[in-house]
Amino acid sequence: MSLLKPLICALALVPASLMAADQPSRTAHTNYILRCAGCHGFEGGGTPEGGIPDFPNSVGYIAGTELGRTYMMHVPGVVGSSLNNAEIAEVMNYVLDVWGETDSGEALVYFTEEEVTRRRAEPVPDVVAYRRLAVDELAAMGITVADYPWP
């Protein structure tokens, strides 16, 4: 009887491990819903009270600068997403496809897995302060992006 309990536990874990190994990869849209929509909603909106900026009329401009692209790789939703770098690039590109339009007429620059890996390795000790730098850079170019109430 003492060997039966561990054997039953081990056998119970086999189907779960087989399902995880056979799990098809999720689409960028699905990963957005699972990892981002909790804060940004299905329409890419934010809540200034919650410190969540809107994507429309904003994310395309932010992704158009070096500071902004690095900032995007360090927001809490990306840092805590449990996605690999290729999946993060796919989700970011989905966000850009849906909400990244700008008035500049310039083509969007999509993220690659390599870029995500490089930018995530850059130290950003204070993401709020880093966003301020990115927004200040855009403001100097005459571009206003979504409100962000945190100091």
Task: Describe what is shown at a glance.
The protein has 151 residues and is mainly α. It has helices spanning 4-21, 28-35, 37-40, 59-62, 66-72, 76-79, 85-99, 113-121, 127-140.
What's the structural blueprint in terms of helices and strands?
Layout: H1 4-21, H2 28-35, H3 37-40, H4 59-62, H5 66-72, H6 76-79, H7 85-99, H8 113-121, H9 127-140
DSSP, total strands: 0
Biggest sheet layout? none
What gross morphology would you assign?
globular
Order of helices and strands: HHHHHHHHH
Given helix and strand content, the structural type is: mainly alpha
Strand-residue proportion: under 5%
Distance between the amino and carboxyl termini: 62 Å
Mean pLDDT: 85
Descriptive overview:
This protein is mainly α and 151 residues long. The protein has nine helices and no strands.
Keywords, separated by commas or semicolons:
151 residues, mainly alpha, globular
